[in-house]
Write a structure and sequence with these properties.
This protein has 79 residues and is an alpha+beta fold. It is 23% helix and 35% strand. The radius of gyration is 12 Å and the shape is globular.
């Protein structure tokens, strides 16, 4: 079982107090353009947890939250 505290340690994400529950999971989607997807989600008032960043392992990653506060990773691997 993953607690939000454990997931926060693993992902390095801040967890907003308004969605602080005892259990969580992370769901990931590989997309062609992370920035465009994040902007579309922002337009639908989806909570953006982490803006797109390029990771050292050559992946662009952003995190959003679903209505229950579960993390959703939006990512693409760079060749």
């Amino acid at each position: 079982m993953n607690t939000r505290e454990n997931v926060a340690k693993i992902t390095g994400l801040n967890i907003p107090e308004s969605i602080n529950h005892s259990q969580t999971f992370e769901l990931g989607f590989v997309v062609e353009d992370v920035n465009t997807i994040v902007e579309k989600l922002r337009g639908h008032e989806v909570l953006i947890i982490s803006e797109p960043v390029t990771k050292p392992w050559r992946q662009i990653v952003a995190y959003v939250a679903d209505p229950d506060g579960h993390f959703i990773e939006i990512c693409i691997s760079l060749n």
